[in-house]
Design brief:
The chain is α/β, with parallel strands linked by helices. The protein has seven helices and eleven strands. It has helices at about 40-55, 75-85, 110-125, 155-165, 185-215, 230, 245-255; strands at about 5-10, 15-20, 25-35, 65-70, 90, 130-135, 135-145, 145-155, 220-225, 240, 260.
Length: about 270
């Protein structure tokens, strides 16, 4: 099999995850703060620095893949990537998802990160499974009979904390960490317990509901996203945590997809 070196970019609402894959192995990974006003010039310099840090040259990379849930950032990222690497970028979309069946009347409305998670899950040889991606939003996505069957979207843990402190004048921001008790003795711990234990209760209820609806009690549940590892040891309902699941889906599309993009030189506005 021909050796591949793949750059994968997952642009999320809060953070942008970047992975460098040597064949199917993550060689290096990085996280950047997502800024919807970033220009292609800034991105070009970021990519240049990250590539040098990983001891690679632009010509070493065989494939480039991009997923973005921030539409306005697709153009500047693709411009920078195409200019730096001299090759087109595969953009994940409902039209470029390795023929994944999508059970949505409007497939284009499905976030590309959700498709990446299901593509990666399917690549494990599974025909059925649930991915819980815990980021700015928490998504529950269902692989059923080899296709994307749909799912749920709920506020993420940090988003819940932000909403609470923004809307309630007496509630100030606190760090998010586990408490030892449900019945807290101070306001900060009350918020922590409510959000974290509340999320565990939500996770348990929703997964049970999905399994019942599918009629599949033993369907595997895989977690990913920034908050996944923090919650993994607190619940038996999640079988495995994979921090690179979304990037793996991007890698597969980068190598096997048909969504090359060569954007014309235009402003990033």
């Amino acid at each position: 099999m021909k050796r591949t070196l793949v750059l994968t970019i997952d642009i999320g609402n809060s953070q942008t995850a970047i992975g460098i894959y040597k064949s199917a192995t993550v060689e290096a990974s990085y996280r950047l703060t997502t800024n919807d006003k970033t220009t292609s010039d800034e991105i070009f310099f970021w990519i240049n620095n990250l590539t040098k840090h990983s001891n690679h040259k632009p010509k070493d990379f065989t494939h480039i893949g991009l997923s973005s849930v921030v539409p306005q950032l697709v153009r500047p990222w693709v411009k920078a990537l195409n200019a730096y690497f001299g090759k087109p970028t595969q953009i994940v979309s409902s039209k470029n998802c390795l023929d994944l069946p999508i059970a949505y009347p409007r497939p284009a409305s499905v976030g590309p990160d959700r498709l990446c998670n299901i593509i990666a899950l399917r690549s494990l040889g599974l025909q059925n499974g649930i991915v819980v991606d815990m980021g700015t939003a928490t998504t529950f996505d269902v692989l059923h009979n080899g296709g994307f069957a749909g799912g749920l979207i709920v506020p993420g843990i940090s988003s819940s904390m932000d909403a609470l402190t923004e809307k309630a004048a007496m509630l100030l921001p606190v760090s998010i960490k586990w408490t030892n008790k449900f019945v807290a003795k101070n306001t900060g711990d009350a918020m922590r317990a409510g959000i974290l234990y509340g999320f565990l209760a939500q996770l348990d209820f929703l997964i049970k509901g999905i399994k019942k609806e599918l009629g599949m009690e033993n369907i595997p549940v895989i977690a990913t996203g920034g908050w996944g590892q923090m919650l993994l040891k607190r619940t038996p309902i999640v079988r495995k945590y994979d921090p690179y699941l979304t990037l793996e889906g991007i890698r597969l599309v980068a190598i096997n997809g048909n969504g090359f993009s060569n954007l014309e030189s235009e402003s990033d506005d």
